[in-house]
Amino acid sequence: MRIRIWGCRGSLAAPGSETVRYGGNTSTVEVRLDDDSLIVLDAGTGIRELGINMATTQLGSKNILGGEPISIGSAKVVHLFLTHLHLDHVEGLGFFSAIWDPEVELHIWGPPSSLRSLEDRIGKLMSPPLFPVHLGDVPCRPIFHDADHDIQIGNARVFVQPVTHRGSTVGYRIEENGRSFAYIPDHEPALGVDLEEIQPEWVSGFSIAHGADVLFHDAQYTEQEYPSHRTWGHSAIDHTVTFGLMTKVRNLVLFHHDPGHSDGQLEAHRVRAKELWGSHNDAPILAREGMEIELPPER
Amino acid sequence: MAQVRQRNVALILARELAVNVTTPMWMWDEAGLLVYYNEPAAAIIGRPFDDVETMHLDEIDRFRAEDLDGNRIAIEDLPSGIALREKQPSQRVLRMIGLDGVKRTVSITAIPLFVRGDQFVGAMAVFWQVPEEQGT
What we know:
heterodimer, A: alpha/beta, 23% strand, B: alpha+beta
């Protein structure tokens, strides 16, 4: 499996000279399975560039970002998994080239609601006055699914679990050929509890993250910022590190950067995370637009 | 995914609520195991949660619950029993003997906890001590 980050900013896109290094696009992660199947995690503003790459490849053009061309595969099937429906995780959907291609089979998975279907909720976003085109008029006719059960895609298994955030939110874990990638971009596991003291079975997201080769996890706030943002559904750096150590992940990637944090501030956060991580295995790193992580099949 | 034990997030959030309120609360998992009660509840139960061995609903008769006329109440007629077995909310005023040996009159309101997909994940109960004159 190969993972590529197209957006890792939280809350709001933050383009500009202060965010060039780590990127200003909101959450979108491409996961290419070993059989070339395409999974996309979240539809933040980063999904636009992912779509451009797919489209240029289809037209036989060069990848505009300069890397290896990518394709959506001969089956033209895309599985888009939404962790939740906050704007920063869905606002790119209308600008994702796949939805304008009638030959693409787009499956959209998202957290269930007792009151309204996923299609209805997405439809509210993709309709006037918020968006000029009604969801029902987009050419690819997305197929909507409640993400309330584990899903098999090719040789990969996608595990789903609700996690603590504001509103209905899930985390995902993708396992393929012995490798695992956990994705919990918006998460406040420390809400109301002391992560240092509590038993793991009482920690939100524990089983999704446990032992993962790679974990992308919310690290929006500094320890100083967190107290004034408690209950907003996000983590402070020390929470993220404690969660990563508790779950024994091999590689912790700090994700969902606050739009107010510059590249320089993020570097300082990485240093702090490394300090908290101590002498354990690979120290936490910062998610960065364009970052690729390869998880070759386990031998 | 390896089978790693983790409580349902609804139960986790319910526990966080219980930790942070001063209203006495206890919680049971879907199998009928008492998984947590908070400090205010400990004052009524007569012992802190951390000092209590794991307790199943079937063992709840150690509290010797009785109605206000002194008749023993069967487990299936206790609010937590109804919430766990019939998956219905229930409320009752009763007397119980705490683990400290003190008999108290308490009002208990129990509710089953369901999550999406009608999955039953356990039950929680709010209970508080009733002044003796109100219990009679």
